[in-house]
Amino acid sequence: MKELLESIAKALVDYPDEVSVNEVEGEKSLILELKVSKEDMGKVIGKQGRIAKAIRTVVKAAAVKEDKRVVVEIIQ
C-alpha cells in the first residue's frame, strides 16, 4: 500500500523528493499519512478534492485484497 501511494503521489507533484508516506497500522485498519511540499498540496488534493478522492479510491481498492481498511490522510 505504501509503495502504491508513494508512486502515485510522486507522479503528480513537482518535488517528488519531498514526498513521504508514513504507515500507522492497527488490527483491521491501516492509516497512510502522505506528506508533500507546500507548493504541491494543491496538485495532490485537486479541484474540489477530486484527485485526493481518486487516490483514496485506488488505495482502498488495492486494500480489499488484503482484507484491510485503509485511510489516506494528506498532511502538510
UniProtKB/TrEMBL annotation:
GO biological process: cell wall organization; peptidoglycan biosynthetic process; regulation of cell shape
Any Pfam family matching the protein: KH_KhpA-B
InterPro entries: KH_dom-like_a/b (IPR015946), KH_sf_prok-type (IPR009019), KhpA (IPR020627)
PROSITE patterns per record: KH_TYPE_1 (PS50084)
Residues making up the signal peptide according to the UniProt record: none
Residue runs in coiled coils: none
UniProt GO MF annotations: RNA binding
Keywords: Cell shape, Cell wall biogenesis/degradation, Chaperone, Cytoplasm, RNA-binding
GO cellular component: cytoplasm
Subcellular location: Cytoplasm
SUPFAM superfamilies associated with the record: Prokaryotic type KH domain (KH-domain type II)
Annotated family: Belongs to the KhpA RNA-binding protein family.
Subunit details: Forms a complex with KhpB.
General function of this protein: A probable RNA chaperone. Forms a complex with KhpB which binds to cellular RNA and controls its expression. Plays a role in peptidoglycan (PG) homeostasis and cell length regulation.
Name this polypeptide is given: RNA-binding protein KhpA
Native source species: Clostridium thermosuccinogenes
